[in-house]
Specification:
single chain, alpha/beta, Arc Repressor Mutant, subunit A, D-Maltodextrin-Binding Protein, domain 2, two-stranded antiparallel sheet, 12 helices, elongated
Length: 313
C-alpha cells in the first residue's frame, strides 16, 4: 500500500469517475485503474462498485477511503511541521468564499496577506455555502469564509466579525423619510432578494418571516448580485437589504439611500471554517489575524442579533 494509491483512491471517490480522477491526478486512466486494482487485491476487498454510474464506494470502501483521507492529511502535516519549525509558510492554500462576502472582504485582505506571505499561493474560489461544505469534506478546500452557524457536523467554525444588515431605501419609497428602519417595518413583499441558494437571502427571509402585507410585488425578480438589486431599487421596484461592508463601499451618491436598522440590529456572523483541526492551521491563524485587522473594529465584538443563514421551516 502506497500514499500514491491512497491519493488515487481519494480522487476516484471525489470525482466518482475513473477517467476524471485520472485527469485530476495527471496520470492516464489505465495507470490509475491498475493502482486501484492492485490496492484492492492487496486488501482482498472491492473498494468501488463499478457497475454503478457514477461509480460508488462499497460499504467497506467508504470506511477505507475515510481512513485514507486521514493518512494523506497526516502525511501533509509532516511537511507543515517542518515549515513551521523554520518559520516558512509556503505552498497552495485553497480558500472558498461565498459571493455575498467576496466582493467587500477579499480586496481588504488579499494584498496584505500576499505581502506578509509571498510564498503562499492563495487560491480563492467564489462558491455558495452548500458547494463549500461539499468541497471541505473532500479536501478540495483548506478553509472558507462564510456566514455561520452552519450546524454541520465536522465543520469547525471560528467567528471573525459580526456584520449588520443595512436597508437600501430609494427615493419616494414609503420609508424614504425615516432616519432608521425597524424590524417590524420590513415587508418581504417590498424587498428585492438574491436568488435561491444565497444564505443572505435565507437570513432576510428569517428576519421578515412574520412581516407580510400579502400584496403582489410589481416585479418578481431575484438576482445573483447586490448591484442588480440596488439598480432596480433605484428604479422604484422596492427596497433591499445589504451587508454593512457592501454598504460602505457603495458610491457616494448611493450611500444617501442607506439606512440603519434599529435595535435589535440584525447581523450576520462571518467565520472562517475548516474540517481538519491541524492541517494548515498556522496559515488559517495568520489569515484570521489579517482579516480582523482589515475590517472596522466595531464589527469585531458587536454581535447585535445574529440571524441564522439557514432557511427556517
Amino acid at each position: 500500500m502506497t500514499l500514491t494509491q491512497l491519493q488515487y483512491l481519494i480522487a476516484v471517490d471525489n470525482h466518482r469517475h475513473f477517467a476524471k480522477a485520472a485527469e485530476a491526478s495527471f496520470v492516464t486512466q489505465p495507470t490509475l485503474s491498475m493502482q486501484i486494482q492492485k490496492l484492492e487485491e492487496e486488501l482482498g476487498v472491492l473498494l468501488f462498485d463499478r457497475s454503478k454510474h457514477p461509480v460508488r464506494p462499497t460499504s467497506i470502501g467508504e470506511r477505507i477511503i475515510k481512513q485514507a483521507r486521514n493518512v494523506i492529511n497526516e502525511s501533509h502535516r509532516i511537511h507543515e511541521i517542518l515549515q513551521e519549525s523554520k518559520n516558512q509558510l509556503e505552498g497552495p492554500f485553497k480558500l472558498g468564499v461565498i459571493p455575498t462576502v467576496a466582493p467587500s472582504l477579499v480586496p481588504r485582505f488579499i494584498s496584505k496577506f500576499h505581502q506578509k506571505f509571498p510564498n503562499i499561493q492563495l487560491q480563492i474560489q467564489e462558491l455558495r455555502t452548500d458547494k463549500i461544505v461539499e468541497k471541505l469534506r473532500i479536501d478540495e478546500l483548506d478553509a472558507a469564509l462564510l456566514a455561520t452557524p452552519l450546524e454541520e457536523k465536522g465543520i469547525i467554525e471560528r467567528p471573525l466579525y459580526y456584520e449588520p444588515f443595512m436597508a437600501f431605501v430609494p427615493e419616494n419609497h414609503r420609508l424614504s423619510k425615516e432616519s432608521f428602519i425597524t424590524n417590524s417595518e420590513l415587508d418581504i413583499n417590498d424587498i428585492l432578494l438574491l436568488n435561491e441558494g444565497h444564505c443572505f437571502r435565507n437570513s432576510i427571509l428569517n428576519i421578515c418571516k412574520q412581516n407580510s402585507t400579502n400584496e403582489h410585488k410589481p416585479i418578481e425578480l431575484e438576482s445573483g448580485n447586490f448591484e442588480t438589486l440596488i439598480k432596480l431599487s433605484k428604479k422604484g421596484f422596492g427596497m433591499t437589504l445589504v451587508p454593512y461592508l457592501h454598504a460602505i463601499d457603495l458610491p457616494k451618491e448611493d450611500q444617501k439611500y442607506v439606512k440603519p436598522i434599529a435595535d435589535p440590529r440584525p447581523s450576520r456572523e462571518i467565520s472562517i471554517v475548516y474540517t481538519r483541526a491541524e492541517l494548515k492551521i498556522k496559515v488559517i491563524e495568520e489569515l484570521m489575524k489579517i482579516i480582523r485587522k482589515t475590517v472596522p473594529e466595531k464589527l469585531l465584538n458587536e454581535r447585535n442579533e445574529v440571524v441564522s443563514p439557514l432557511r427556517s421551516a
